[in-house]
Amino acid sequence: MKSVEFLKPWKIYSPGDVAGFEAEQAKRLVDGGVAKEVAAEEKPAEEKPAKPAK
Description:
By secondary structure, the protein is α+β, with helices and mostly antiparallel strands. It has one helix at residues 23-31, and strands at residues 2-6, 18-21, 35-38.
């Protein structure tokens, strides 16, 4: 799955929308100038709660 950001309207999507597609469809959208590929956002590392002071 590849994420793309739309640069032009396409079907139900508006410029600025981000959506995920199979690699082949994402490539067609990018190659057609309708969207640009965006990197998947990394999840931040889980923070453990601090232990309360005794």
